Amino acid sequence: MYKMGVIGDKDSILGFKALGLSVFPVTQPEQAARLIHRLAKENYAVLFITEQLAKDIQETIDRYNTQPFPIITLIPNNAGSMGLGMKGIKASVEKAVGVDILFGERG
């Protein structure tokens, strides 16, 4: 069975534990990259990672963007959004439909 996890600073991700997701508090981007590799081998299908950590490990995230699992989704931390998660969703939608249907811009 596939699992879902959340990676980020402790204050930002502990709430996900109440939803039944596995939470992995880390403070350094290198820790997050190693953790993504480990969780990919442990049948995690979906990983949420805070934008603040993700911005420094883009190479690791790009590696898994070409594979079916795990799906890595960027989320804001408790300090707010950097816009990286929405930028990724926008790019995926444009790739799938050929047009920016979220913000009304033509691609």
Structural description of this entry:
By secondary structure, the protein is α/β, with parallel strands linked by helices. Helices cover 40% and strands 21% of the residues. The chain contains 5 helices and 4 strands, in the order E-H-E-H-E-H-H-E-H. A 4-stranded parallel beta sheet has the order 2-1-3-4. Strand 1 (3-8), helix 1 and strand 2 (22-25) form a beta-alpha-beta unit. It is globular. The chain starts with a strand and ends in a 10-residue tail after the last helix. The mean pLDDT is 89.
List low-pLDDT spans. Answer: none
Structural class: alpha/beta
**Order of neighbouring strands in the sheet with most strands:** 2-1-3-4
Biggest sheet architecture: 4 strands, parallel
What's the end-to-end separation, in Å? 38 Å
Average residue pLDDT: 89
Counting DSSP H or I runs of 4 or more residues, the number of helices is 5
- In terms of DSSP E residues, the strand content is 15-25%
Q: Can you write the helix and strand succession as a string?
A: EHEHEHHEH
**Roughly how much helix do the residues carry, as a percent range?**
40-55%
Shape: globular
The counted number of beta strands is 4
What Rg do the Cα atoms give? 14 Å
Question: Could you name the key traits of this structure?
Answer:
alpha/beta, 107 residues
SSE blueprint and pairings:
Elements: E1 3-8, H1 10-13, E2 22-25, H2 29-41, E3 44-50, H3 51-54, H4 58-65, E4 71-75, H5 84-97
Parallel strand pairs: 1-2, 1-3, 3-4
